[in-house]
Amino acid sequence: MKTTFLERMKEYLKDEYEAFEKTLDQPMYKGLSINTLKTDADYVIQNLPVCLQKSPFSKNGYLFDAHEKLGNHWMHQAGLFYLQEPSASSVVDALEIQENDWVLDACAAPGGKSFQIACALNNTGLLLSNEMDMKRAQVLMSNMERCGISENIITCSPIEKLTPYLQTCFDKILVDAPCSGEGMMKKHELASLEWSVENNRACGVRQLRILESVAGCLKQGGILVYSTCTYAIEENEAVIHEFLARHPEMELMDGGSHVQRRGLPYKDLDVSKVRRIYPMDGGEGHFFAKMRKKEETKSSSIKILQNKKIEPCAQKFLLDQGCTNWNLMQIQQKVYMKKGPFLNLKVPVLRQGILVGEMVKNRFEPHHHFYTAAQLKHDAVVEMNDEQMHTFMSGNVIVSDKKGYLCMQYHHFPIGFGKGDGNQIKNKYPKGLRMDFIK
């Protein structure tokens, strides 16, 4: 790591610097968050072949040994947990999300915090997850799909183009801002190679611009949480200080008791209310500040899309599946469903709600997302044994006399779907997810 960076950290940490320096040669902390939409912590703890310890940073977070690899485990593929660096999980608890809240995750990829928000919402309200980079947005969508999230809108837009349509719409907003990534240097060598004070300052300018863009989207009394995975004052305390100076309608709130370490001194900012995490605290590094909006600034400008005509064969499929009382939307050949309204956002929308499926040559073909959605129950089910699960996750056919579209389950958790012809089940598990089965 660059000497200048280490000298700065010595200035920040003073007597604690030696403890910080020792962590640089240690492996990264690893953690996971339980998907409470699909299961509970007891099930994962009892059935996952690793030792889990409760994380101090979030109510559904757990730590495990850095040498363990869980990405290929069937529980991960079934969306029962989300792999997440422990200190990153601290931020969402500060939002104090309640069921039926409308929440904006302004910089959402790869999706860990959006996942936590969705669990807190418990299939109520609305979560809008935005990511301006298309490749990262696709990763975000894949993660949310795997975890079975339904009341979610995923957009791919520069935030300043999205927010004019969403003035005073949200109860909670998270800005997990793009940053210099000082807390991720052990994971991403590029963060160390590209480090400079000038880059810290440039990031601070961008971060402030994002905060400025979302401020008008918050309702009166709503909560805005700003976070980074970096240590630099220029990207943390300085950004909050300047934002509050520009927005007298916002007030700084206490970050909560789940993180003990306070911020670094900066001008007249009350740093007892902001929070920091360093590696010696049990996580790689994070900063967050919680703010509340005291008064309105503009009236809401949100527009609702009206339901369009749905193809009859798609309607029949949903009726056969027992899916009634949902809002439906057909966009070109694809059919979506969600409990809440479909929004007219006038920016690229990758998904609203559950992608049920699409029309293919005058017939309706369901989608993987329909079978991973956490709250849906399926009558046509195949409960796979270990051998069948291995076959399915590898992308191969399964011998069976069942017919029609079938929800493929393992230990009663949906993994995906297939189509039976009376002799075998054709595998519909997405090619990009296929891998060796780890029990």
Description:
By secondary structure, this protein is of the alpha+beta class. The chain has a domain of 62 residues: Nuclear Transport Factor 2, Chain: A (Roll), CATH 3.10.450.720. Helix content is 26%, strand content 26%. The protein has 14 helices and 22 strands. Strands 5, 6, 7, 8, 9, 10, 11, 12 and 15 form a nine-stranded mixed beta sheet that branches. A five-stranded mixed beta sheet has the order 18-20-21-22-19. A four-stranded antiparallel beta sheet has the order 2-3-1-4, with helices on one face. α6 links the parallel β5 and β6. α1 crosses α2 and α10 packs parallel to α11. It is globular, with a radius of gyration of 23 Å.
Question: Which structural traits does this protein have?
Answer:
single chain, 439 residues, alpha+beta, Nuclear Transport Factor 2, Chain: A, 9-stranded mixed sheet, 5-stranded mixed sheet, 14 helices, 22 strands, 26% helix
> What is the alpha-carbon Rg in Å?
23 Å
Q: Low-confidence runs (pLDDT<50, min 5 residues)?
A: none
Query: CATH top level of the domain at 378-439?
Result: Alpha Beta
Overall mean pLDDT: 94
Structural class: alpha+beta
**Largest sheet geometry:** 9 strands, mixed
Amino- and carboxy-terminal Cα gap: 39 Å
CATH fold category name of the domain at 378-439: Nuclear Transport Factor 2, Chain: A
Total beta strands:
22
Q: Any guess at the CATH architecture of the domain at 378-439?
A: Roll
Our count of helices gives: 14
In terms of DSSP E residues, the strand content is 25-35%
Shape: globular
